[in-house]
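Quiz preparation item.
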């Protein structure tokens, strides 16, 4: 093989091209590659953090749902308890009201019985006076014998 000037010139040009590429072209390409590598690594790390945060959020949401169900059950139990308390209070109040109504009715019945007895006594005394007047053959004056009539009414 002959080394001639063309081959020597090409070798020198190739060496200058390599030097030029190493000096001016290679650093920006390497910087771009490093930047891209860093972005990819950051993206993967962010994806891992997102996955971890998603798991935490899922656990928190499950806990919140469980707590909400417990709270709802507690509220339902309290409302049931309050409802039964209200029913019991209403029963007690209704019983007291019925007792009051029965007592008032008994008092009214007693008054009516007393009035009926008084009317009956008055009618009996009138009948007794009329009968006594017929038996004696003369009229008995109710005004003059008021004391006697009051004793008679009291005995009846």
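Solution:
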């Amino acid at each position: 093989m002959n080394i001639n000037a063309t081959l020597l010139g090409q070798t020198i040009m190739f060496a200058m091209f390599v030097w030029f590429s190493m000096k001016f072209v290679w650093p920006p390409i390497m910087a771009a590659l490093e930047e891209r590598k860093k972005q990819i690594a950051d993206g993967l790390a962010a994806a891992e953090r997102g996955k971890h945060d998603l798991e935490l959020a899922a656990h928190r949401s499950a806990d919140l749902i469980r707590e909400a169900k417990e709270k709802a059950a507690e509220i339902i139990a309290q409302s049931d308890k309050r409802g039964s308390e209200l029913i019991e209070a209403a029963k007690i109040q209704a019983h007291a009201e019925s007792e009051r109504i029965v007592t008032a009715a008994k008092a009214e019945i007693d008054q009516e019985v007393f009035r009926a007895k008084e009317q009956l006594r008055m009618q009996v005394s009138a009948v007794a006076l009329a009968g006594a007047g017929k038996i004696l053959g003369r009229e008995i004056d109710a005004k003059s014998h008021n004391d006697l009539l009051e004793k008679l009414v009291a005995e009846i």
